[in-house]
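Q: I'm writing up a methods section and want to include an example of the input and output format. Could you take the sequence below and give the corresponding predicted structure tokens, formatted cleanly so I can copy it straight into the document?
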Amino acid sequence: MSPMQSQAEYVLRTVEERGIRFVQLWFTDVLGRHKAFHVTPAELEDALDQGLTFDGSSIDGFSRVQESDVLARPDLTTFQLLPWYQDGAGVARVFCDIVNIDGTRFEGCPRQQLRRVLEGAREQGYTFFVAPEVEYFYFKDLDPTRPPQPIDQGSYFDLLPDDTASQLRRRSVLVLEEMGIGVEHAQHEDAPGQQEIDLRYTDALTMADTVMTVRHVVKELARQAGIAASFMPKPLPDVQGSGMHTHLSLWQDETNAFIGDGPYGLSEIATKFVAGLVQHAPEITAITNQWVNSYKRLVPGGEAPVGAAWAHYDPAALVRVPSVKPGRVDSTRIEFRSPDPASNPYLAFAVILAAGLRGVNGDYELPKEHEPISTLPQSLAEAIDLMAQSELMHETLGEHQVEWFLRNKRAEWEAYRGQVTPFELERYLPLL
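A: Here is the clean output for your methods example:
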């Protein structure tokens, strides 16, 4: 029996034994928005064997009308029960890769693009591991007609009474652990209502699936509690926004390739990887920070980076080299601090890896510590212009994804640019 057949039998047996009534087939569009099919056990065997055909032209960034049909093929290694369904109707999920009808890789699938970049790294002998710190807010509601109201007034590491935020953060971690997702720790972050969940190191494809799961779990559990969770990068003025600081390392033959005798214990591979990230950061920012609102977070004076620099310890550095605990040299890593939690994790991890490997393969020289070699884009418009001109981005994501992403982001920018904001009315209407 092949591994695929064995996995299919395990899924079907689990569905029967656990009384699963629905299986959700998860996938994402080019912007990282969650999409799903819901299939019953009666249809599951065929879906696992053949996949599900659907009209790709109905999904943003997928297909044009004249070439619309694509196939959602379940990745059976990602099958998990969803523990929060408590009404007797058991529900499970499985992530899907999107392929063409003939079975070839579909260029519009973000998960497939990350797979392709990871396979390229593997051909060079590298496995890419990541561990994001996912920040988000709990609000009383998400009424867009008034400013969001945080559900607490806490700050860094506050141990508050057992309030709603503490209960929800704890329940989110327990649900994630029940789904087999490792959590290093969770805490209250700096701003009122702001939380952080730090995820345990794993390979980049598994972690991209995990980030999608975390966003879904956090929002669903908040909804059940009658409040709202948001991964918007900068929902409140005058306090810090939400980032997704991402720790990364390359491994070769089960050995951390970032360990060496260079600056702060980094290897030559690691320093060249850092140099690649610093050099190419401006052109990948449209992916790691993909919304108009993302650039309200990347401003001077906070803990988010505005320049392409690296440092051992500087909360505003783009790349930071964390200290390694004594006896834990295998945890040597770097931290890339510009991404936010509303990015598409598949594309974000793909371009981060591609930029770092460009530094390794191009023999880039590490710039001086603390000295920015360029600035990050200050708006979505600037970011997408840099992306459009980037040979690295076209090579990494492919023309299909670049075309659809830029089309969507240009439309977003034009819609934003035409708005008259409360700031303008308050500042200019009485004066001008």
